[in-house]
Specification:
Layout lengths: L4 E6 L3 H14 L4 E7 L3 H9 L6 E2 L2 H8 L3 E4 L6 H10 L3 E5 L6 H14 L3 E4 L6 H11 L6 E11 L2 H4 L8 H4 L2 H4 L1 H12 L3 E9 L33 H8 L2 H4 L17 E8 L4 E10 L3 E8 L2 E8 L9 E8 L4 E7 L8 H10 L12 E2 H20 L3 E2 L5
Parallel strand pairs: 1-2, 1-4, 2-3, 4-5, 5-6, 7-10
Antiparallel strand pairs: 6-15, 7-11, 8-9, 8-16, 9-10, 11-12, 12-13, 13-14
């Protein structure tokens, strides 16, 4: 008889290790047990296993399910494979924890929702930003009616030239792998707005361009390793300088020829680095969203305007602006009053939100969830559907209707 809930991991990259495997083994052993790891690249799988106490490594995903009979499958692969492993896990009678995004397009989303309904099992999507204290305070204020019914949201997110550039070095830089940043990255942001306003998208219109990355520079090579321009390129990285990246990627290159340090100016890059999206919700509320991946520092800014007031909130995540000792959120009401909420900064991954989410995933989950912080497959679907509709709108130049109940 099982005394602990048993988990297996598919996808042995940095996120699979640091967000799921390592904390599960090191912090939640009383309640949870990692009983298997699978990755198409066995070198990466063995490296993750070695860092997690020698968890069994499997050469085949279905063989792992048959041998371990897990309660839950954790999916942390390349985005394009999420739906495949989710479908196979549900068919095997397992619940699923999926790293965002749930999938990369509407067709995959529909297949997952249908399979979940048939199986009677559940899919949880790891939207860690729902656990970030500043995001939580916005949700609480909106739910309490501090600004009345939300009518309009403006959200701008900018990635710096370290974090943003990294998406153009890796597998994410191909739309077929990630759905582009409007799916892979913006799924976090669209989910936040969906969650804050408790509404579903109806229509999407978007624009996107490549202005910094891709073949915009003549001085380029296949990858940073061995590049003749690395001494003068501000985007050059050295994988061997980080033991984890060296073990997970450099040592694994001979198996699948995957380069973790691809040139950010490569011809094959087909995702956008500058994007704007307009969303109309079923209630009539409007979202104006902007994302770029080449800012001098990283951060975000949001405003929510409602029938009874306005919330202004944001934070810097890198560079000098990020050194502020606290976070602030301001509420303006229709009487001209201004209420400032000051929150202390929280240490840890993604502003402490990773640890809070991990506790819900692998510890003793709360019986109630008044803010609906745990995201189900429907929430994961709605965020992907906005990103997929935005991609289609950019290609067609036309607005795209969204079936959020697909």
């Amino acid at each position: 008889m099982k005394t602990r809930k048993q988990y297996v991991l598919v996808g042995a990259g940095v996120r699979g290790l640091e967000m799921f495997a390592r904390p599960l083994v090191e912090r939640f052993g009383d309640h949870a047990q990692l009983v298997g790891v699978y990755d198409p690249n066995p070198v990466r799988a063995r490296s993750v296993s070695a860092r997690c106490g020698g968890v069994p490594v499997f050469a085949d995903f279905d063989a792992m399910l048959a041998a371990t009979h897990p309660d839950v499958v954790i999916v942390a692969t390349i985005d394009r494979w999420h739906h495949e492993y989710i479908l196979r896990s549900l068919a095997a009678g397992c619940d699923v924890i999926c790293e965002k995004p749930l999938a990369i397009d509407a067709e995959q989303v529909r297949a997952i929702l249908a399979a979940e309904a048939r199986s009677g099992r559940t899919v949880t999507v790891t939207f860690n930003l729902r656990f970030a204290p500043l995001m939580v305070r916005v949700k609480e204020l909106v739910q309490q009616g501090a600004i009345g019914r939300v009518l309009a949201v403006d959200l701008a997110w900018w990635l710096d030239r370290q974090h943003g550039a990294d998406y153009f070095r890796r597998w994410h830089r191909r739309l077929e792998n990630s759905g582009g940043l409007l799916v892979h990255k913006a799924t976090h942001h669209f989910d936040l707005v969906n969650w804050w306003v408790d509404d579903a998208p109806a229509t999407v219109f978007a624009n996107g361009q490549r202005l910094v990355y891709g073949p915009t520079r003549a001085e380029r090579s296949a990858r940073c390793t061995g590049c003749p321009h690395r001494e003068t390129c501000e985007f050059a990285i050295d994988l061997n300088a980080d033991p984890l990246l060296r073990d997970l990627y450099v040592e694994a290159e001979t198996v699948d020829s995957y380069w973790r340090d691809g040139c950010v100016f490569a011809e094959e890059i087909d995702i956008w680095d500058t994007m704007s999206v307009n969303v109309r919700y079923r209630s009539g509320a409007l979202l104006s969203y902007a994302l770029n991946a080449y800012s001098p520092y990283e951060g975000w800014r949001a405003t929510l305007t409602g029938t009874a007031g306005r919330i202004e909130v944001g934070e810097a995540l890198s560079g000098l602006p990020a050194q502020a000792p606290q976070q602030t959120l301001t509420v303006y009401d229709l009487r001209g009053e201004q209420i400032v909420h000051t929150l202390p900064k929280v240490e840890g991954g993604h502003g402490g939100s990773d640890a809070r989410l991990q506790a819900e995933l692998f510890g003793r989950r709360r019986r109630d969830d008044p803010l609906q912080q745990m995201a189900d497959a429907r929430a994961g679907a709605r965020s992907v559907l906005i990103g997929d509709a935005a991609n289609r709108s950019i290609r067609s130049g036309q607005p795209v209707e969204v079936d959020a109940d697909a």
